[in-house]
Amino acid sequence: MSRAGGTWVGARVPRNEDARLLTGRAQFVEDVEPPGALHVAFVRSDLPAGRLRRLDVESARAHPGVHAVFTADDLGPLLRPGAVLVPPPPLEGLVFHARTALPLVRDRIRHQGEALAMIVAESRYVAEDAAQLVEADIEPFDPVVDLGRALDDDAPRIHDDLPSNLAAHVRQAKGDYAAARAQADLVLERRFSYDRGIGGAIENRAVVAAWDARADRLEVWDTTQAPIPVRNVVAAALGLSESQVRFIAPFVGGGFGPKIMFYPEEILIPWASIQLGRPVKWVEDRYENFFATTQERGQLHEAEIAVARDGRILGVRDIFIHDSGAYDPYGLTIPINTQCTLLGPYRVPNYESEFRVAFTNKPIVTPVRGAGRQHGVFIMERLLDLAARGLGLDPVEIRRRNVIGSDEFPYNHGIMYQDFAPLRYDSGSYEASLEEAVRLVGHETFPRERERVQADGRVVGVGVVNYVEGTGIGPYEGARITVEPGGTVRLATGVGTQGQGHFTSFAQIVADAIGVKPSDVRVVTGDTSDFHWGTGTFASRGAVVAGNAIHAAALSVREKILKHAAEALEVDPDDLELAEGAARVRGAPDLSVDLGALAVNANPLRGAVEPGTEPGLEATSYFGPPYGTTANGTHALVVAVDPETAMVEILRYIVVHDCGTVINPTIVEGQIHGGVAAGIGNAFYEELVFDEFGGTSNASFMDYLLPTSTDVPPIETAHLETPSTLNPLGTKGVGEGGAIPVAAAFAQAVEDALADIAPGLEILDIPCSPGRLFELLRAHPKWCAGSRPASSGGAS
Ligand code: MCN
Question: Which range of residues forms the domain containing residue 614?
Fold first, then answer.
């Protein structure tokens, strides 16, 4: 089956899952309440750094309704550091110190929110009351909060066995940057920062475990993005066979990255259920989520670009520090994403990139939507803007002069990507994407438009930036497709789903191959009893990796259907077509047989099945790409800035993107809208504020500003489709792309808006909140309060 031949792939099919979600019938972990369940509250450290001298849990243990209080001393063999989930790639000269957390603190506290004790009680209320009775005597240490000083010789050490807070050091280079710099007509150097944020899923994490001693089986409901790997780790840690442990990730109210992590609670809750012989439930609260769930961002860059007079990039150099928080269980995924994504759709003949990962006394950093890619895009796009300004070129023109042409694929950048493969772009539409965005935003006529829009006293500006995103990385995913006797089609795959629309887009792939409607395909994701091989939902890989496994399984089932139908109808398989849930003879649709009837035939109760024939209309397939496929796009926006308050309103937001073959344009647009909303939060609003003692001072949605619907404008989307050359469906990922270039686009547009009233103002730090922008304006020599654009007659 090819894209062109499909009815459903590419169609705007309404989401199969929406009826359940919108009528409140979808099951989330919070909804799971096994009879007799006990409830957990954790006692967590308020201090980010210190030594636990004494923990007195006796009053809590004696509290009525408390069934158990567990501390590190009670854990026995479970008390060992968690796994390093992603090892670093084999890079030359690599330094990497893996440090992971114990499930409960034994002595050393390294970040706020580390769990000291677990209270299990009749209800959450009782557990919370008992948690108040725990007395923790903690010797406070000086916390390492400032990333810029974390690697100083005199910085307090977070892991005593290491000589410094250095977690890793990586250098990758190509060409000869120093030589390129020497020949350049213009070299620009800047310091950039990109601060921390949270994932911000509406559903916090939750785990419910029920040990059934009679059946000798453990069932666990978990909000994880990786149910199969988590099942495997938990089974091994508890000394159980994987077949005894079932993990179910039902509907999950947003993952956005942090739920790919393996957390202590995922082992502690099942373990407690076994210890107590009762189901045990824990649902994270919002305050805990700010500390106990992983975060992202936090990088400081010193970057420079060397360009020729005509705007050609001769080379880029970027030295940065990445904040890993107190531990580094997720290896180097984020900083390597930054390092590689910086190169974008551009020819960069000479590149030198070096990063150090620092431990700090802050919550752990793991991927959040974009996973460090936005940092790389921000640095590169900002450097290009500065270079354009320095050369007197239009920002669009400098990009035009550097983008990789459509005849240059596959394009090898000569450095290594996070999937351990060389950074190669399989295909893309960089020129076309840029031009389409320029056209849609009206870039050429914008100066005239600016005069008109500025009439209300605000200043307006436009931004246009590009990105390339590594998506769809391996190692593999699988799928099993079964046609049932009633004609229903069942699809089981290992990736979990957190709102991405898999119940529909995956069904569309099956529907095309075997001639049914997507609504006839019952999709099961994230239940290890249905499918137990796979890795998880991350790196925008569902459509590529699971999608192509589904495609392969569907083609195998199609072959089986055709074979059985040809026998039943006594025709050649080539004379058959599959449509409307039946196999029918081409040109003679009355000669047909239902898929359900064929499924019954394929599973006989008597007679003899031919040797080598598998029963049923079922197939299982796997797909593993050789390396990640690269999606690309261009974002353009128009902003209006109030020069007095520094408030920015986004007037238009345009996304031109290319994720190869689009399975479902409506779902893809939804993914882009969500991504852009996240990006707007990152660019403008969201910032974790750490006080002098290392505590987070805005750990609530009252103080940590997520963008709301009034902050997110309508988003105009244009789809380009350059099929990937790395998979049969030609798909590339899209789940993160919307979030990646927003900060860069935002910065360019805001600077453009302010060009007359604060010429030369540079936005180098993200988030660029209204407060920060106001400070920038106030510090600008030409700005004075009440500056107005010339057209409103009040320019300063
Ligand atoms: N799709 C498509 N055609 C394509 C590519 C994708 O129709 N060419 C569809 C897919 O079939 C799927 C959706 O778009 O229904 C996203 O696909 P993909 O880009 O493959 O991403 P994943 O399925 O791997 O989802 C993970 C990705 C990531 S890494 C984060 S973070 C993220 C995201 O998806 N978290 C999300 N989108 C999210 N959306 C919601 N609602 N909630 C989250 O937590």
Answer: 18-26+474-623
